[in-house]
Amino acid sequence: MILQRIGNRGIRLGTLFDRAAARHPAGPVVLDHTLDIAPQLGTRLTLTELAELIDDFASRLWAARVRPGEHVVVHKTDGFDISLLACAVARLGAVPVLLSSKLDGATVAELIRRVDRPHLVTDGAKLEHDLPDTVFGLAEQVLLTSGSHTGATPLASLAGSPRVAPVTMSPDHPTLVTHTSGTTGTPKLAVHTGRSFQARYRPQASVVAFVSKREPLAVHVSFVHSRMFTAMPIAVLQGHPLIVLRDDDPATVGEIFAQAPPGFIEAHPNSFMRWEELVDDPRRPLANVKYFSSTFDAIHPRTVHRLLGASRREHPLFAQAYGQSEVGPIAARTYTKGRGAEADGRCVGVPFPGMTGVRVVSRDGNPPSRTNPGNIEVRSDGRIITYLGEHERWEQQTADGDWWRMGDVGYRTKRGCLHLLDREIDVIPGIESTLAVEDTLFARLPELVEVIIVPGGHGTAVPVVCTKDDKPLDQVAWQAAVRGLAPMADPVQWRLEDLPHTATTKIKRVELARLLQAGKGGAQ
């Protein structure tokens, strides 16, 4: 798309913090945790300190024989140093492959196998408790960010290694590999280039450009997700004080936001749902927020409405982007305080002019509509170039060359607004949109903290609900809430922490349906 291509030199992750520090040397970065690779730096750092840290660890990786074009898998205990290590790897012209700390050991081993003998950066805790011994045979070598383990080399032992000049790779060369959410099985490894990352950076950077440089930008995003590597550059290059959150616990977040009130927050939808309780916090930690932003999944209008109500800024906005790890942001819409909790959450907005495109393709020969949704296909220069080790699967999702099959169904209105109704695999006969039903239930039942509708036996729609403090669901209120909706089975109550989640806190709907049909789970 033309506006994504003009002057696109690639994202250049390896020198990102060098360039940011040159512009804003004392630019502050606030963390809610210390870095495993540099605990001595504490939780309040500067861009200059982070640039130095990345340069230091790039030199250690070089001393460990990591070379340009090689793959380095990073799978360690969760923390912002995952993203910093990715920058250090990219600084050498090597390709970081980021695997979530939440993945089980067997899945990590399988993904390492697909990469074909990469270097593995992990920690002693992962090797001791999570990873199988087979990773030593699958990896070229194992390097440790903390702890110790037989057969592994601590990066601490390479401190003081001679510094190495940054390696410049072609913008069309792979620059980062992330994995998909894995909601339907083993995650796929998505290969990004410097140019594709820069292309998906631009739509989001154009939005944040309206935020004052004095306003702190808070980010709670999976450190292995592609979104982190557009959100992070936006903040540091534009000069915003950056708040990086590992955890979304409302108590911790409320304390940090009360001390450093953000003007812009980027987070997962499920995290925003947890933060609804901050609306009533007497410290008013959300009062300074001008813009809320979420890109990862459907977000319920009730959550949007409550968060906007907590802002004391004039005309605050909630921006919801529709996209996917494989293509980046595609369409967007905004909510204002004027839109109530019953706002149409299925409307995900319109494409970015000159940057992205959307079309809806009929599934049965009839025009796509609300009652007959079609397959959503999109176009963007931010699209990945392959799935590592599974190029045929990548080809299956391409259509007519430039178009990418999202795996979602929906329709477009006469004004061009895209409405997302469901994932293709989540469609339940008799229900136009499970997501729309979930939106309605959230609006009608304030005690809900999660509701997921999945197919049960014989295709029956089964609502799985979680309540605040795990209180028993009010059955009378439930019956009133479902009045007028499509027929469903009786609700099944679970604890929120027992639901199967992805690295970006999405609910694994297929896995949840399987557990239900196997008679597992539920409130204890």
From TrEMBL:
Matches recorded under PROSITE patterns: AMP_BINDING
Name the source organism: Streptomyces morookaense
Its recorded name reads Acyl-CoA synthetase
Report domain AMP-dependent synthetase/ligase positions. Answer: 17-386
Record InterPro entries: AMP-binding_CS (IPR020845), AMP-dep_synth/lig_dom (IPR000873), ANL_N_sf (IPR042099), ATP-dep_AMP-bd_enzyme (IPR050237)
